[in-house]
Amino acid sequence: MALASLGLSGCVMTQKSRPNTVTSVDLDRYLGRWYVISNIPYFLEHGKVASYDTYAFRPDGKLTNDFTFRRDTVNGPEKTWHGTAQVIDTSTNATWKVSFVWPFSVTYKIFALDQDYRWAVVGTKDAGLLWVLARERQLPESTYTSILRQLDEKGIDPTPLKLVPQPNN
């Protein structure tokens, strides 16, 4: 998700429709660390494992959006790309603009969100790129299966999602 803004213009999108976002996001609860459980792979995330996003308020009203990852092995050194985000739908807080390289940005939509903020599904506005995020590095298989079912019910094809390796601890 973190660097989608760099190459989306050349990516082939798998969904043509514009799925609805969640109706409301409490930013205070949403901010913090989210581990990438799965994603629709694309070139900027190739070889990136043990990845997570960290969101925080900035003094200027925007958000930090740091994407941290390891390359090829969960035991490798961490690297972080620093980005910014801005909520563009303040009625729901579920649609953002995210940028890692100015002036490029991508629309970030929160399509599904656990009521206790334990997991979320975010993606580009047409869901051509998706990420399943969680507060923990691992999700129970039953929870993950339920998330995929919810996406399917929303008209979002979950089959392109691939698990992202995360350490067991």
Characterization of this structure:
The protein is mainly beta. It has a single domain (4-163), classed as Calycin beta-barrel core domain (Lipocalin). It is 12% helix and 38% strand. It contains three helices and nine strands; from the N terminus they run H-H-E-E-E-E-E-E-E-E-H-E. It has an eight-stranded antiparallel barrel. The longest helix is centred in the last third of the chain and has 13 residues, at 141-153. Mean pLDDT is 90; it is low at 1-15.
CATH class: Mainly Beta
- Structural class computed from helices and strand pairing: mainly beta
Task: Encode the helix/strand succession as letters.
Answer: HHEEEEEEEEHE
**Average pLDDT value?**
90
Query: How would you describe the shape?
Result: globular
The CATH superfamily is: Calycin beta-barrel core domain
User: Poorly predicted ranges (pLDDT <50, ≥5 residues)?
Assistant: 1-15
Strand tally is 9
Oligomer: single chain
Put simply, the count of helices is 3
Beta percentage is 35-45%
Tell me the span between the first and last alpha carbons: 23 Å
Task: Give me a quick take on this structure.
The protein is mainly β.
Key words describing this protein structure:
9 strands; eight-stranded antiparallel β-barrel; mainly beta; Lipocalin; about 170 residues; 3 helices
Chart the SSEs and their pairings.
Elements: H1 4-7, H2 27-30, E1 32-39, E2 48-57, E3 63-71, E4 79-87, E5 95-101, E6 104-113, E7 119-123, E8 130-134, H3 141-153, E9 162-163
Antiparallel strand pairs: 1-2, 1-8, 1-9, 2-3, 3-4, 4-5, 5-6, 6-7, 7-8
